[in-house]
Model the fold of this input.
Amino acid sequence: MSTPLSRRAFGGAAAGAAAAAALGTGPAEAAPAAPPAERPFRAARPRRRSRRPNVLFILGDDLGWADLSSYGSPHIHTPHLDRLARGGVRFTDAYSGSATCSPTRFSLYTGRYPGRTKGGLAEPIADKSAGLDPTHPTLASLLRDSGYATALIGKWHCGHLPDHSPTRSGWDEFFGNFGGALEYYSKLGLGGEYDLYEGDAECKDLRYYTRILTERASEYVSRDHGKPWLLNLNFTTPHWPWIADGDKEASAEIVRRIEAGDRSALWHQDGGSVEKYKEMVEDLDRSVGRVLAALRRSGQEKDTLVLFASDNGGERFSCNWPLAGNKGSLQEGGIRVPTILRWPAGIDGGQVSDLPVFTPDWTATLLELAGARPHPAYPLDGTSLAGHLLRGEDVPERDLFWRVRGERALRRGDWKYYRGKSGRDQLFHLAEDTREQADRAPFEQSRLAGLRAAWERIDAGLLRY
Done:
């Protein structure tokens, strides 16, 4: 199912990587000047692996599909993430579990549709009234029960203290913020509260947030854990406010507005620019590079499965081209996200895949690779890709489902059923029309009816708003 997107993205990758090499990649990692050509994904010959993999799952925040040079960005240079892709598999048709921050995180942590849980109905969580039920099994709790050390560093956004916390949901360690956004220096959140914690206690550190998370993650992956580990590393970059490292004046102005009672200050509607956004994404890239360099120095790189993705599509200054829509929408630009997988001990590098996958699939996949089983009372909605990735097994055709207030979408193969806020059912053939401009509904009534019925069957089993 090779698509024009795959070819276009590879062209962007080559150009972006070459430009990055010319500019220099900084101290974290060096990238080769001439990247090898990608080839369609093919499972490696079965390998004898001595241990279960460590798992480093890195989330960017509101990063658009084409914001990396390996995904075609014409002006943002991301040599470290490009290097990660060259060492593994770059997915062109990968999706987030929802179109906004917290429901995607619910789908990752539970492996289920956000609408299975009350907390997942908040799109996104904006107050302290909802969260992930601590009794619900999570990726972390299931891996911990099977012998893994677990940690979450960065943005949680699945509820607030005293009822909700990563340490109540399976993570041995937590360092980060509870809310959906914070000012990068002061750590003030959407309600004006201080929002940086270690465990369940406030932790004072007024340095630039991305620096702190990078430092903490580098220390974690450098440890001698004595057993396999899971680290969820959730950056807030490049989420608003549009503040890069060193922007002390912009930070001070936002803090002044917050302290004056302006609860819209963090949205930064009057700030930011394409160039500032570029600066933030490139800083994210360097930060990932530093963590990966620490992993390599620790001697654990070969046995560590690294997954990089975004929690949803891009916003405001992001580049989603050629996709339509952005964060909050179930058009492709709101849910299709850059996704990279690297595991030297199990998967060959230099590959590209256009297999449609979404967030709950990764939960199911990681559980299988770690030798952990889902809880029988909480069946997963994702499909494990372990057999496909390791042995080349076919992934059976299945439906990828999304529901966001006022919108619905379902993808089956190359076809996508979509109903936006207009209430009109539409049908798109994504292999030929990635931009969702040619509505095939009038000519494919039977197919439309079948996909709509499939969406409604799934929806009938979810909680109501």
Summary: Confidence is low (pLDDT under 50) at residues 1-27, 29-34. Residues 44 and 347 are 6 Å apart (CA to CA). The chain is about 30% helix and 15% strand.
